[in-house]
Amino acid sequence: MALRVAVIGLGGIGRNHARIYSAHPKAELVGVCDILRDRADTAAQTHQVPAYYEMERMLAELHPDVVSVATAGVENGGDHFAPTMAALRAGAHVLCEKPLSNSLTEAQEMVAEARRLDRCLAVDLNHRFSPATEMAKQHQEAGDLGHLLFVRTYLWIGNRKESAPYFHLRALHSHSVDVMRYFGGEVSEVQAMFAKGPGREIWSNAVINLRFAGGALGQLLGSYDMGGSHDIEQTLLAGTAGELLISNSTCDLTWYPHGKDAQAQHIHQAGGQKSFGETMGRRLGRFVDQVAAGARPTEIEGSGAEALQAQAVVDAAIRSHESGGALVRLQDVLGGSAGR
Ligand SMILES: NC(=O)c1ccc[n+]([C@@H]2O[C@H](COP(=O)([O-])OP(=O)(O)OC[C@H]3O[C@@H](n4cnc5c(N)ncnc54)[C@H](O)[C@@H]3O)[C@@H](O)[C@H]2O)c1
Questions:
Q1: Is residue 339, in this structure, part of any structural domain at all?
Q2: 239 and 327 together in one domain
Q3: Each residue of 214-269: pLDDT tens digit?
Q4: Using only C-alpha atoms, what is the Rg of the chain?
Q5: Which of 85, 217, 222, 326 has its CA 20 to 30 A from that of 317?
Q6: Which residues line ligand 1 (CB under 6 A)?
């Protein structure tokens, strides 16, 4: 039987969620909700499902198996807390948009509540679901990198919105830090420098250095001043046995095995971040497939707990920047509860 899915928040992203669930064979879209009536009504008409303007009413009447939270708010995450908590408490598994929240405390509460209620909590960390990125992971697991030494990523786009000072960090780098953690594992220390691009009031550029608990070093370059870049996202993984380069906005993978006779292998995987619908469809589809197959909350890929760790890295970078580039230990940012 198909999972009954409801979507809260019907801006551009929530409309994508509704479209993806409607097309998924193991999902049935049963309702849509937005406090803006016209948004709820339009989506309801498109998908022939009931429209709601209050999430509590929708949750009480429909009892969905899965709820997608596609609200936004301050730093694109400030409005996620209330719908996520309400949906979990109504018994649903939840897929929340990124960042999980713009507040680390709230993100920790969301992860803790999902654990307490034994519900699956996933986050739309769709960049790790690009085909090239997944294939790089398979190479890593097959030992093609040897011992991982470096993870170097850039993610840069154009976004001229002048909102909160750390909007660029919190709204965008949930993605890049998640991809770096996907390959490098837990982060133990963070050091960062931020800069403002020409004419900007917010910290629109960043360099963030990471130390992974497993011993590798990482570096992230990020920007909201790179509109029109030919390649918005790239990750180089360098190890003792070879290198893997995910490039061309996560569409291409090149494997450079070490050794003088070794031949580089270049693989074009598909849309990646050049095709929003593809990675988002793959990510939401994976969540539906996992929940439909009865996955335990701890088995969910791109989980709330993982998003919380990525968010803590971003908060550590902000703390480092505010203290003139000091080294910040992740455990000091997460406090007593590591949120896992
Ligand atoms: N995963 C990705 O690649 C990706 C890309 C872009 C944006 N996003 C994320 O998607 C989210 C949504 O982005 P958007 O551009 O569609 O935002 P948006 O502001 O256009 O839409 C959010 C909608 O949520 C509604 N809303 C807010 N609180 C609500 C509530 N309590 N109940 C019902 N409706 C409520 C608003 O009325 C609004 O229509 C953001 O968190 C953003 O960070 C993700």
A1: no
A2: yes
A3: 999 999 999 999 999 999 999 999 999 999 999 999 999 999 999 988 899 999 87
A4: 20
A5: 85
A6: 8-14, 33-36, 39, 55, 70-72, 76-77, 79, 82-83, 97-98, 124, 126, 171
